[in-house]
Each structure stands twice: as C-alpha cells, then as structure tokens.
Fold:
Amino acid sequence: MDYKDDKIAEAVKETMVIRPPRQLLDTFGATNIGYYMVTSPTYAEMDKNLEETVVRKGRVIASRPRVVTPYYLSRLEGFSNDARHYFESLIQQHGPNVPGIYYTYRNEPGELSIVADSMQLVVDKLNSEIERSRDPLMAIIKGKDDMWDVSLLKFIHQITSHSMRGNIAQMQSRGLLDVDSTGVPIEARVSIEGMFQRVIEGELEPRELKNELDHWGVFEDYQDRFFALFNRTRSGRV
Structure:
C-alpha cells in the first residue's frame, strides 16, 4: 500500500460508532440520519496534555433503496471504465437482469465546533442531549480528524450492511425483487409509475423520467404516455 492507502486504513481502523442510530434504513422511503463526528484535533499530536475535542454535526440522507440490475448500472453515467468492466463481468457471471439493491447517500455537513473538554466528557454530553431529544436517528461517531469523511463512509457502510437483510426481506415479501418478462424488476416498474405521477404533480422534471426509462431500456414501452405528458407540461395543462 502507498502512503494514502495507509492513511485510509488507519482512519478506518480508528473509527468507532459509539452510538448507532436506533432505527435502520427505511425500505420504502428516504432516511434522514443525524450524526455527531467527534475527533481529536490534528494539532493535539503535538501536545499530549491538550484536552480539546472537535465536534462536527451533520446529516446523511439515505435515499430509498432501489432495485437495480447489472444492465441498469452499466448504462449509468459517471462510472469509470474499470467500474464498467466490473458491471460487464457481473453480466457475464449472473446475467444482465439479476436484481440487487442500490443505496445512494448525500452528506450535509453542518456546524463545526472545538470544545475544551476530553472526548469522553463530550460524548457523555452528546449522549444526554440525544436521550432528551429522543431522536432515534442520531449517531455519535469517533473518527480521525484529518480524514473524518473516511470515518463517515465507514459508518455509512456499517448501517447499510445492518439494514440490507431487512430491506431485502421486505421487498421480497411484496414481490418487488421479481423480474418481469422483459428483465425489468417489478420494483423498477412501480418506481417508474411513481415518477410519472411526480412529473404530473410538478415535483420531477420530465428529463429525469426520460433518463430513467433510457437506463432501463424501456422508453418504447412508455413513449406514448411520456410524449403526451411532456406536451401537457410544456403547455402548462398538467
């Protein structure tokens, strides 16, 4: 490993989820997770007697888990050639239409403060504050100051791993992991219907719906509905 890999491995090793959220990721909706990231300031390495703690407050927005296939992922933009090669290998091994769950996240960093207390005292106060608020979706994470975003990614990976089994079971119980005769998961068809409705209600741009249809390769199945809806949105008659 090079120096950067060593730093990442060190950050992952030092990261600890002190207080995980009391709830896992929602299967059928977005999950808004608040977090406190506590770290020892980098400059504390020069003064071992210094008792200061850096507290970063933020939120991670986990979008509703989606059912995707290797074929779908291979058509998304923003992936490197190496990633596309991996998708192609999945298609060769399992076929283009094997369903899987795809999670996406958005980090919204908040305020940063430096507290003149030991980390343990700070954590105790934060725990008490969360208990008073009774927020089941607040977490406390001990991370590494100069790579705190790596620590956050480890936390995201952990909560995803813990949530996945339940998410899959709930989707299976509703038949959403089944694939229709065209190779499209039932959940994707349900999602597309929801996107049509969101366009009608003005919550979604038609181009976003068009992109989704293209990614699944099903635009021809919906083109009459799409063009009718697109013409209505342009004329303002939705």
